[in-house]
């Protein structure tokens, strides 16, 4: 230990050095003049306020008028600073009012006011404003319970501007837009065609699960609130055709002809990719290929954006100048062609932004002035927001402008002139021409890698939050495939142009040759993307950072740009320090929050709204996760969306135990996606699941083996712990003689097990199951003196034996078989005496009777509260969550975009018997003698999902 004065001296010296270092980094020179950037920021803030506070349209317009008056007054008084502030306030207020008008105000005769989420017959008249385009056909995988697609039943979609609707045999004026979905092929409807449509009308539904995509909000942003489903093109009467020389008709014909040219001159495998790359037509692109582009961070290739428009503009300008076309006329041609291309690819926001930038660059070149690229980008942002303010909250628009802004900044930093050293110039000129060319290519490649890395780092937080995906492989892949993308675009464009040459003897060979080169380039892109998607660790599905951290990240980036000196901004160390600092802040905040506000010691049970299906997430008091089933009848993709959004909303990245109750696909057809996107500790099934001959079972077992996931079988009497505070007891099915041991085992040959030929009927032996539903795994989750009963699709004789065996009471009962009449509502509700009954499904035709039977079956403690994970005439909610502690059981339901508390029907107090864990006995193997009086008055009908045989 030294003297105190020595330590004080070192401390003061360190403080002085720190202050000097910070002072050396702080910007002292004035900020560069970028007035349009400030205006764009004001318009963006105003638009955001208009979206958040929708009912203040009069307030926003009044505030804008007052700010304009203040601006005039301050300007006359010579207070230029205050006048600028007032002008920005006027822009923000006007943007807020305009955004509210565009996103929240609709005419009183809009068709949507007369519709609901349930389809009803409608007859409407209107004009086609967006031409029909074929909808991507579903995969139709029978192994997952999907309905196989019928080629003659392909669907298409177009947008119709409505003018009249028929109500009570009378036609009345109507307004608004409707998305018309036509089954059975692509109708011949050009833009401008007046039609009369007979179909079923409805409104888009609200999200039923947290963080799920909000189709209703998207419809409102697009001002297209209605959906009209048409059985076939025969239900559409054409009242008037558009004029043959209409520009919109000509452009649509040009687009469709272009797609046909690509299909004719490219291979069937690469033609859909070429159509997406060149014409923005992604209807025929297989979903699997789109997923590969998504996980490798190259999905931007499939959407027409600045890359495509910029390449077209540069190539055309170079060709015209090579042909000795005057510079002014070449600029005019570039403006015209980029505008035509923007219209040809349906003018999505990224291509509109890129086209506006090209036009501004051409205008500056024509006037002999070089404008700031960031100013031009800000002007494009203002024009886009004035055209359609809700674009502000679309993730595609955000990423488009954010990526372009990063590229502009990196380009400015990398293009700064170096020291004018005569010796360096002499050394450079002394090198051979080939070496100078290679060095120039190397510098360009280096700059491209740096720019791509900067875009990836800046956009990664918002991509992880919105798409729950991080793709580090994209850092390497994007620079590698960029030359192939340019090559494919060039030769694909030449193929389209060559098809316009006069005479088939000239056009066909040239177009075929260009198409052959384009096809080879696309094969290289597809191969590289497929290989990158299979790289271990190349991408990861993540929960994503919290919203406050993402907002702070972009706020810190902007602050750094405004405060740090320009010389320091060009150094990699500055940005590395900024990134590491904010990562450290996030970790520190999470640590402090966990220590200061530890999570509640409770069991959380969340039932996702899966339609006719089941997906239940159980979080233990220590945060470990059990998932009970994950599937939906006939819609594996919908099941996957619902289940993954619920898991990510609950901040789950690892599923410790995945339980599959039985071999019906509506209970596990989302499991393959869960295996791909989450870390799974083990899969627990009943022995009959392994004996199933279902293709879906074979697929799940094969995926589990490939992922190294242990598959374990359990039967009645077994138990396992989620954590030391939460235990799971298996109540059904009973163990058969041939089930073998129950200990954990690795599955080495799932295909052989699934097709081993062992019977799953078990006929002639008392107590054995006779169908998949009767083999459902029934679990009792016990913690904190509470009990949750998970019953799967248990029904029939097995359910009667289960009821007769006395399974014990519970606090929450998940009704068997989605709450159908075959679930013995009064019997199982009476023996379990549940305070809460949860039905995972939409409800059947007799739902009102089923609900009442469950609610009134208890003999003590008042009525049971019955909740369903789906909308009906009583509730519009979706997912349901229970929080179980030793003190109480709280229920909430997701409705209207947030969780809302669900009160108990008997006033909230449960009876004492349901508050304590009652031991669960083994399931009796003797037939039950109890009969249901309620069922005797209603026909019993089973709606279980049939298995699909090979």
CATH superfamily of the domain at 603-904 and 911-936: Ribonuclease Z/Hydroxyacylglutathione hydrolase-like
Mean pLDDT: 81
| CATH fold description of the domain at 603-904 and 911-936 | Metallo-beta-lactamase, Chain A
Uncertain stretches of 5 or more adjacent residues: 741-769, 907-950
Give me the oligomer status.
single chain
CATH architecture term of the domain at 603-904 and 911-936 = 4-Layer Sandwich
End-to-end separation in angstroms reads 81 Å
Number of strands: 25
* Fraction in helix: 40-55%
Content of β-strand: 15-25%
Put simply, the count of helices is 29
Radius of gyration: 32 Å
What is the name of the CATH class of the domain at 603-904 and 911-936?
Alpha Beta
Q: How would you describe this structure to a colleague?
A:
This protein is of the alpha+beta class and 950 residues long. Among the domains are: 34-105 and 376-410, no CATH class; 111-242, Beta Barrel (OB fold (Dihydrolipoamide Acetyltransferase, E2P)); 547-596, no CATH class; 603-904 and 911-936, 4-Layer Sandwich (Metallo-beta-lactamase, Chain A), CATH 3.60.15. It has 29 helices and 25 strands. Strands 15-14-13-12-11-10-23-24-25 form a nine-stranded mixed β-sheet. Strand 20, helix 27 (825-832) and strand 21 form a beta-alpha-beta unit.
């Amino acid at each position: 230990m030294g003297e105190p004065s020595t330590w004080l001296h070192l401390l003061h010296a360190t403080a002085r050095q720190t202050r000097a270092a910070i002072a050396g980094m702080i910007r002292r020179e004035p900020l560069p003049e970028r007035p349009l950037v400030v205006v764009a920021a004001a318009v963006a803030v105003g638009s955001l306020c208009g979206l958040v506070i929708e009912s203040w349209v009069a307030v926003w317009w009044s505030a804008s008028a007052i700010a304009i008056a203040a601006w005039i007054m301050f300007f006359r008084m010579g207070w230029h600073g205050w006048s600028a502030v007032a002008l920005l306030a006027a822009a923000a207020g006007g943007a807020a009012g305009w955004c509210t008008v565009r996103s929240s105000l609709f005419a009183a005769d809009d068709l949507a006011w007369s519709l609901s989420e349930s389809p009803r017959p409608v007859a409407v008249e209107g004009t086609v404003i967006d031409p029909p385009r074929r909808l991507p056909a579903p995969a139709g995988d029978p192994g997952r319970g999907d309905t196989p697609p019928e080629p003659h039943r392909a669907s298409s979609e177009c947008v119709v501007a409505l003018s009249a609707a028929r109500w009570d045999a009378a036609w009345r004026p109507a307004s608004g837009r409707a998305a018309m979905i036509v089954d059975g092929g692509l109708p011949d409807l050009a833009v401008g065609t007046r039609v009369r449509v007979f179909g079923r009308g409805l409104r888009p539904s609200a999200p039923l699960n947290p963080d799920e995509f909000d189709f209703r909000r998207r419809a409102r942003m697009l001002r297209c609130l209605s959906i009209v489903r048409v059985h076939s093109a025969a239900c559409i009467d054409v009242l008037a055709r558009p004029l043959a020389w209409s520009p919109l008709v000509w452009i649509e014909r040009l687009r469709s002809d272009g797609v046909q040219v690509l299909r004719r001159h490219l291979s069937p495998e690469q033609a859909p990719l070429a159509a997406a790359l060149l014409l923005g037509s992604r209807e025929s692109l297989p979903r699997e290929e789109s997923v590969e582009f998504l996980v490798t961070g190259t999905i931007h290739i499939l959407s027409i954006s600045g890359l495509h428009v910029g390449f077209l503009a540069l190539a055309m300008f170079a060709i015209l100048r090579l042909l000795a076309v005057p510079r002014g006329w070449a600029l005019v041609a570039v403006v015209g062609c980029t505008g035509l291309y923007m219209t040809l690819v349906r003018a999505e926001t990224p291509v509109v932004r890129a086209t506006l930038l090209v036009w501004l660059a051409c205008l500056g070149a024509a006037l002999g002035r070089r404008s700031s690229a960031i100013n031009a980008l800000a002007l494009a942002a203002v024009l886009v927001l004035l055209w359609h303010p809700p674009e502000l909250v679309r993730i595609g628009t955000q990423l488009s402008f954010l990526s372009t802004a990063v590229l502009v900044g990196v380009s400015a930093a990398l293009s700064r002139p170096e020291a004018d050293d005569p010796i360096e110039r002499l050394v450079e000129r002394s090198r051979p021409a080939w070496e100078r060319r290679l060095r120039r290519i190397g510098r360009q490649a280096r700059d491209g890698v740096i720019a791509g890395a900067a875009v990836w780092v800046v956009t990664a937080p918002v991509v992880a939050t919105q798409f729950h995906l991080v793709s580090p492989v994209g850092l390497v892949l994007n620079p590698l495939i960029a030359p192939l993308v340019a090559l494919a675009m060039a030769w694909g464009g030449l193929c389209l142009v060559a098809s316009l040459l006069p005479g088939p003897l000239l056009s066909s060979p040239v177009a075929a040759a260009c198409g052959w080169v384009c096809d080879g380039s696309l094969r290289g892109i597809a191969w590289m993307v497929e290989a990158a998607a299979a790289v271990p660790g190349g991408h990861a599905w993540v929960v994503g950072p919290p919203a406050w951290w993402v907002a702070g990240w972009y706020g810190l980036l902007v602050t750094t740009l405004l405060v740090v000196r320009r010389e320091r901004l060009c150094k990699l160390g500055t940005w590395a320090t900024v990134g590491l600092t904010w990562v450290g802040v996030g970790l520190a905040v999470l640590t402090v929050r966990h220590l200061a506000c530890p999570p509640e010691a409770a069991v959380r049970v969340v039932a996702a709204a899966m339609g006719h299906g089941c997906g239940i997430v159980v979080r233990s008091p220590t945060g470990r996760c059990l998932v009970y089933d994950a599937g939906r009848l006939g819609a594996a993709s919908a099941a996957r969306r619902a289940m993954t959004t619920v898991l990510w909303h609950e901040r789950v990245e690892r599923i410790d135990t995945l339980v599959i109750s039985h071999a019906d696909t509506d209970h596990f057809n989302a499991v393959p996606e869960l295996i791909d996107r989450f870390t799974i500790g083990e899969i627990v099934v009943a022995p009959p699941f392994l004996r199933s001959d279902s293709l879906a079972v074979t697929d799940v077992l094969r995926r589990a083996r490939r992922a190294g996931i242990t598959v374990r079988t359990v039967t009645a009497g077994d138990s396992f712990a989620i954590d030391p505070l939460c235990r799971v007891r298996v109540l059904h099915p009973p163990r058969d003689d041939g089930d073998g041991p129950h200990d954990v085992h690795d599955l080495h040959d799932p295909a052989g097990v699934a097709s081993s030929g062992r019977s799953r009927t078990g006929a002639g032996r008392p107590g054995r199951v006779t169908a998949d539903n009767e083999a459902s795994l029934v679990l009792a989750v016990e913690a904190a003196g509470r009990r949750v009963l998970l019953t799967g699709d248990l029904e029939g004789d097995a359910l009667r034996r289960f009821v007769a065996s006395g399974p014990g009471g519970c606090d929450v009962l998940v009704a068997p078989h989605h709450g159908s009449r075959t679930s013995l509502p009064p019997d199982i509700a009476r023996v379990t005496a549940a305070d809460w009954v949860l039905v995972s499904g939409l409800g059947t035709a007799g739902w009102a009777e089923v609900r009442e039977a469950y609610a009134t079956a208890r003999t003590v403690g008042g009525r049971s509260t019955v909740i369903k994970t789906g909308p009906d005439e009583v509730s519009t909610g979706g997912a349901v969550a229970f929080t179980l502690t030793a003190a109480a059981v709280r229920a909430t339901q997701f409705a209207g975009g947030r969780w809302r508390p669900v009160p108990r029907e008997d006033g909230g107090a449960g009876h004492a018997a349901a508050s304590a864990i009652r031991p669960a006995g083994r399931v009796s193997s003797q037939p039950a003698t109890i009969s249901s009086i309620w069922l005797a008055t209603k026909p019993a009908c089973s709606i279980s999902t049939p298995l699909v045989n090979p």
